[in-house]
Design a protein that fits this description.
Helix content: over 70%
Strand content: under 5%
Distance between the termini: 64 Å
Strand order of the largest sheet: 1-2
Structural class: mainly alpha
CATH topology: Protein Binding, DinI Protein, Chain A
Number of helices: 5
Largest sheet: 2 strands, parallel
Number of strands: 2
Number of domains: 1
C-alpha cells in the first residue's frame, strides 16, 4: 500500500505537468481552398497554366494535321513499290513521334505547374507561419479536414490580410 502511494505521488507531478503542457498548446485552422480561390496570384498561376496547356494542345493538333496532310499528299504522288515503302517507313517514324508528344507534354505541364504553383504555395505558407509565430499557435490544421471547430480559431481572415487579399 505504501508503495502504491509513493509511486502515485511520483506519477502525479508527471501527469500534472503533461496536462499543463497540453493546456498551453494552441490550435487553429485555416481554409486553404478559400485562400487559393481568393488569392490573385493563385488565379494568375492557374490561368497561366491553362494557357500553356492550350498552347501545347494546339501545337500537337497542328503537328497531327500536318502529318495527315503530308501522308495524303505522299500517297497521291508516289505509286512505285519503293516509294510506297519509303512513305510507310517515314509514316511509322512520324506516328511514333506523334504518340510521344502527349507523354512529353504531360511532363512539361507538370514542370510548368510546379514552377507556377510553388511560389504561390510558398507565399501562403509563409503568411501562415508568420501568424503562427505572432499568435503563438502550436498547430495549424486545414479546415477541410475538421468536422467541427469554433470560428474564433479560424485564421483564414488573418492569412488573407497578410497576403493583401
Amino acid at each position: 500500500m505504501r508503495l502504491v502511494r509513493r509511486y502515485s505521488l511520483l506519477l502525479f507531478p508527471i501527469f500534472f505537468f503533461s496536462v499543463n503542457v497540453d493546456a498551453q498548446q494552441k490550435i487553429a485552422h485555416v481554409n486553404s481552398q478559400e485562400l487559393w480561390a481568393a488569392y490573385p496570384k493563385a488565379k494568375a498561376a492557374q490561368d497561366s497554366l491553362a494557357n500553356y496547356i492550350k498552347q501545347l494542345n494546339e501545337q500537337y493538333e497542328t503537328r497531327k494535321k500536318d502529318f495527315q496532310d503530308w501522308l495524303e499528299q505522299a500517297q497521291r504522288g508516289c505509286y512505285s513499290p519503293e516509294g510506297i515503302e519509303t512513305i510507310r517507313t517515314i509514316a511509322r517514324q512520324k506516328t511514333v513521334e506523334l504518340e510521344e508528344i502527349p507523354i512529353e507534354n504531360e511532363l512539361k505541364i507538370q514542370e510548368k505547374e510546379q514552377a507556377l504553383i510553388a511560389p504561390v504555395q510558398q507565399s501562403i505558407t509563409e503568411a501562415i507561419q508568420q501568424i503562427t509565430i505572432e499568435k503563438k499557435y502550436t498547430y495549424i490544421i486545414d479546415s477541410e479536414h475538421i468536422l467541427y471547430t469554433s470560428e474564433r480559431d479560424d485564421i483564414t481572415p488573418l492569412v488573407k490580410t497578410k497576403l493583401a487579399i
